[in-house]
């Protein structure tokens, strides 16, 4: 291989390489530009994007603006007004500080900037293309800054191949805006995509009001406290409304949005086992710490931090949120924001954020309760020792039941379950059946789950679509902005599987129909789990993806452990089991039944 001499890269190539770390997608540009507007003291910020942000991103603010002799300098690498010494990194109070964002964005786009300070009579226009200045002149404009980024990645087309469709990229841009707006109630934010307003967060007095605007239909509780110098502010929803993944849980350190492996486990564990694995509450948790106790300069996009004492952060968050969960009065029938003040040493001052807002302590009920969800039916307890093949005296033969357990035509099966004698159930979970030479124990949930899975799979294979059952009244869910966008993007796939949803408001999703086989399921919980299954499935093959989704749905449509079944329902379930080839396992791989030979039982009690 030919040897090439070592040379210093040109500034343009270096900028384009650096842009790959800072500018991952259009939402990265939105984040950096809106952060600059906040650092400039803006009270109103408008974001307009086209084609998901690839064709155009425009940010207008009423902040301090740039002086004419500073505009060009702002686009030089490592040019910043926020740091002078390395020690300043220990007390960074602004979003930006490296001086990398503007030159990185300029290196991969066409940029125009109009800006004016309050002291200047006229403003300045600066135009750059691929990082090179092509025009600079005086121009009329209001106080503040208007910056437009066009044709993102026009000179690095390979980057465009990794972007998603326009709606997905627009969703990421909206999420970047909301993350910055959450702790800034003193600033108004507006966003439009292709001329349509998609976000409108007005200026308000308190963080609670801003969070309620983000999660309008949730029942949120607020608490705050301090331990070992770590201040914690939590505004969170109840475990019943938790969601798969942390997409609707916003975590901050000293006013900066972060994703941290210390905070998320602390929050989940503080709910004391009331959350399913992989589920997180909706809302906001903000940590405020002394300067020098954490390092934000560990990731180009500044979304990760490194704590000097992570255990202290964990303990503080766990304690404050744990006390809130223990004392909160949550009710699904009454939504709104309830402020819970904790006993000492919880304090009433909030964590500090840039241009710190005030916090109030009134109770706010902003929205009416959602439509009630039909409860699962309560089934009668079984009578002792009926034969499975013969219903008890006076009882009609098995008919289609509430759980959909109608008998099916028999097929060859290694064990004729209908010939077994039903003894009863153990812990309302395991069906006990007696044969001449063994005791058969059936997990009722696993068995019915397999039956439901086979039904769903047969229908989908035969028709290409699962049938739906319309809800008498649509179930409307007020979600976080990112969550609503995420579900809308999956609406076609959800509809194919029987769950019909639509966007009924800026942050609201309406559920209009559920799969007919799962008519008794909670629509909200079914939606959350189906969305998670669809997103997890993107990592595997199509057939495996489908199986995973159907298995998730089957779990919702099956009788639960703890439900007492009537003898007729046991008969119907066994009949269904004989109609399929379930190979002894539920779709998640758990055994459906266990056999215990009588001779083994006799040996254990020394009768053999």
Describe the structure.
It is built from 15 helices and 25 strands. The protein is of the alpha+beta class and 608 residues long. A hairpin with a 2-residue loop joins β4 and β5 (132-139). The termini are far apart. Residues 83-89 and 331-414 have low confidence and may be disordered.
Draw up the topology in text.
Layout (H helix, E strand, L loop, with lengths): L10 H12 L3 H14 L4 E7 L5 E6 L39 H7 L2 E7 L6 E7 L2 E8 L4 E7 L6 H4 L5 H16 L6 E6 L2 E6 L5 H8 L5 E8 L2 E7 L6 E2 L4 E5 L2 E2 L5 H8 L8 E2 L2 E6 L5 E2 L10 E2 L2 H18 L9 E3 L81 E6 L3 E5 L3 E6 H20 L4 E11 L2 H9 L1 H6 L3 E6 L2 E8 L7 H15 L4 H15 L10 H12 L14 E5 H7 L4
Parallel strand pairs: 1-7, 9-18, 12-15
Antiparallel strand pairs: 1-2, 2-6, 3-4, 3-6, 4-5, 7-8, 9-10, 10-15, 11-14, 12-13, 16-17, 19-20, 20-21, 21-25, 22-24, 23-24
Task: List the keywords.
Ribosomal Protein S5, domain 2; Heat Shock Protein 90; elongated; 608 residues; alpha+beta; six-stranded mixed sheet; Ribosomal Protein S8, Chain: A, domain 1
Determine the N-to-C terminus distance: 80 Å
Outline = elongated
Average pLDDT level:
76
Instruction: Tell me the fraction of residues in β-strands, as a range.
Output: 15-25%
The CATH architecture classification of the largest domain is: 2-Layer Sandwich
What is the fourth-level CATH superfamily of the largest domain? MutL, C-terminal domain, regulatory subdomain
The domain tally reads: 3
Largest sheet: 8 strands, mixed
Major sheet: arrangement of strands: 5-4-3-6-2-1-7-8
Question: Which structural class do you get from the secondary structure elements?
Answer: alpha+beta
Q: Using DSSP, what is the number of strands? A: 25
Say what the CATH topology of the largest domain is. Ribosomal Protein S8, Chain: A, domain 1
- Provide the CATH top-level class of the largest domain: Alpha Beta
Helical percentage: 25-40%
Radius of gyration of CA atoms, rounded to a whole number? 30 Å
| Low-pLDDT regions | 83-89, 331-414
Helix count from the secondary structure assignment = 15
């Amino acid at each position: 291989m030919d040897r090439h001499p070592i040379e210093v890269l040109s500034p343009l190539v270096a900028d384009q390489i650096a842009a790959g770390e800072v500018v991952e997608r259009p939402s990265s540009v939105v984040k950096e530009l809106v952060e600059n507007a906040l650092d400039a003291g803006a009270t109103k910020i408008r974001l307009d994007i086209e084609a998901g942000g690839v064709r155009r991103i425009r940010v207008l603010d009423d902040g301090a603006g740039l002086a004419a002799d500073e505009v060009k300098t702002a686009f030089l690498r490592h040019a910043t007004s926020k740091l002078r010494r390395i020690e300043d990194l220990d007390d960074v109070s602004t979003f930006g500080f490296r001086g990398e964002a503007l030159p990185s964005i300029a290196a991969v786009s066409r940029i125009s900037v109009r800006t004016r300070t309050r002291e200047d009579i006229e403003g300045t226009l600066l135009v750059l293309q691929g990082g090179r200045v092509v025009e600079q002149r005086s121009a009329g404009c209001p106080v503040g800054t208007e910056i437009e980024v066009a044709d993102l990645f026009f000179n690095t087309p390979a980057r465009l191949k990794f972007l998603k469709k326009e709606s997905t990229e627009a969703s990421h841009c909206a999420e970047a805006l909301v993350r910055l707006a959450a702790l800034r109630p003193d600033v108004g934010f507006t966003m439009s995509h292709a001329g349509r307003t998609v976000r409108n967060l007005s200026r308000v007095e308190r963080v609670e009001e801003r969070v309620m605007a983000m999660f309008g239909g949730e029942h949120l509780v607020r608490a705050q406290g301090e331990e070992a110098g770590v201040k914690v502010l939590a505004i969170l929803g109840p475990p019943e409304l938790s969601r798969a993944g942390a997409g609707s849980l916003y975590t901050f350190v000293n006013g900066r949005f972060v994703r941290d492996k210390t905070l998320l486990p602390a929050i989940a564990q503080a709910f004391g086992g009331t959350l399913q694995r992989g589920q997180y509450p909706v809302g906001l948790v903000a940590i405020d710490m002394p300067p020098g106790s954490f390092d934000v300069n560990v990731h180009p996009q500044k979304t990760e931090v490194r704590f000097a004492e992570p255990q202290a952060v964990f303990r503080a968050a766990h304690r404050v949120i744990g006390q809130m969960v223990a004392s909160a009065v949550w009710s699904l029938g009454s939504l709104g924001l309830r402020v819970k003040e904790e006993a000492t040493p919880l304090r009433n001052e909030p964590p500090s954020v840039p241009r710190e807002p005030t916090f109030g302590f009134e109770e706010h009920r902003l929205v009416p309760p959602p439509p009630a969800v039909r409860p699962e039916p309560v089934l009668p307890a079984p009578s002792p020792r009926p034969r499975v093949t013969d219903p008890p005296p006076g009882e009609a033969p098995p008919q289609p039941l509430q759980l959909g357990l109608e008998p099916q035509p028999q097929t060859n099966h290694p064990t004729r379950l209908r010939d077994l004698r039903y003894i009863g159930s153990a812990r309302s979970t395991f069906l006990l059946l007696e044969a001449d030479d063994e005791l058969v124990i059936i997990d009722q949930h696993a068995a019915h789950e397999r039956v439901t899975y086979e039904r769903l799979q047969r229908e989908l294979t035969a028709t290409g679509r699962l049938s739906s059952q319309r809800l008498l009244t649509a179930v409307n869910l007020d979600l976080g902005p990112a969550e609503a966008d995420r579900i809308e993007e999956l609406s076609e796939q959800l509809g194919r599987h029987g769950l019909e949803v639509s966007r009924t408001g800026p942050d609201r999703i309406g559920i209009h129909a559920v799969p007919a086989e799962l008519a008794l399921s909670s629509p909200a919980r079914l939606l959350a789990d189906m969305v998670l299954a669809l997103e997890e499935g993107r990592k595997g093959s199509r057939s495996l993806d489908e199986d995973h989704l159907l298995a998730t749905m089957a779990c919702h449509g099956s009788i639960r452990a703890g439900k007492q079944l009537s003898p007729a329902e046991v008969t119907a379930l066994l009949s269904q089991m004989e109609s399929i080839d379930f190979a002894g396992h539920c779709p998640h791989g758990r055994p459906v039944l266990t056999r215990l030979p009588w001779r083994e039982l006799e040996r254990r009690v020394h009768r053999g």
